[in-house]
Amino acid sequence: MIGSVSKKLLPLLALAAFVGIWQVAAGFWPPELFPSPLIVARALRELADSGVLWSNITVSLARFAGAYLAAVVIAVPLGLFLGRNPRCRQAIDPLVQVLRPISPIAWFPLAVLWFGIGNAPAVFIIFLAAFYPVLLSTVSAVIGIPPVYLKVANNFGAKPGSVFLRVIIPAAFPGIMVGLHIAVGTAWIHLVAGEMLGAQSGLGFMIVDARNFLRTDWIMAGMLVVGVLGLCINLGMRRFELWLGRRWGGVV
């Protein structure tokens, strides 16, 4: 009981300490340069009451969900295939290793030329940011499956399709989830960056637009919203992982 209470209390204490340090630091700067937590809270309410905040949150979440799911739908099956086919993996790996280190932001000038200004370049940037972590973690997870799992399945006469669905995917699941967690963070970061560079809506655009009006309180309010949404997405991923793990018997 005490451990449960302390587990919930510690994050609140850390949050209170952060707000306190922020409040003290804000006293050394003009509000126009470094607004206090109260001023940012008022700006957040102002944005919410005007509807600007909710419309931009909706747009950003829709972009993120579409691009992230597209990356997962393509990267996971491709990673499973490459993990099970060494020759194909050897053929494609050099190309992947050349493209992977290129920052998604470096693709933005080409994305604007290919797709124009608007929604598509941001979606493309998010897709790239999520694709490679999921792909590489899936390949690594499949390669790392203990051979004894496959031998036992073959000894019991399991068909290839059953082995794939009941042995390979569940055994690779923890490694795949590592990539999904990493991809969530990188994709969310690059979502905001992509919206700052060329989109006409979304949280990144809202922050840049606030900068143009010299509204530092709006900027910090937007940054807080980005952080809170990122936390919520990460918690949702964790709950999904636990739920799926229980179904496969991997989590108690």
Concise overview:
The chain contains ten helices and no strands. The protein is mainly alpha-helical and 252 residues long. It has a single domain, classed as MetI-like (MetI-like fold, Orthogonal Bundle).
Largest sheet: none
Number of strands: 0
* N to C succession of SSEs: HHHHHHHHHH
- Principal-axis shape equals globular
* Alpha carbon gyration radius: 22 Å
In the CATH scheme, the class would be Mainly Alpha
Give the count of structural domains.
1
Query: Number of helical runs?
Result: 10
| Structural classification | mainly alpha
| Helix content bin | over 70%
The low-confidence parts are: none
CATH homology superfamily: MetI-like
Cα(first) to Cα(last) distance is 20 Å
- Tell me the CATH architecture: Orthogonal Bundle
Describe it.
- The chain has one domain: MetI-like fold (Orthogonal Bundle), CATH 1.10.3720.10.
- It is built from 10 helices and no strands.
- Helix 3 crosses helix 9 and helix 5 packs across helix 6.
- The radius of gyration is 22 Å and the shape is globular.
Explain the layout of strands and helices.
Layout lengths: L1 H25 L10 H14 L1 H33 L1 H14 L8 H8 L3 H25 L3 H9 L4 H38 L5 H10 L3 H32 L5
Helix pairs in contact: 2-10, 3-6, 3-8, 3-9, 5-6, 6-8, 8-9, 8-10, 9-10
Highlighted features:
252 residues; mainly alpha; MetI-like fold; 10 helices; 0% strand; globular
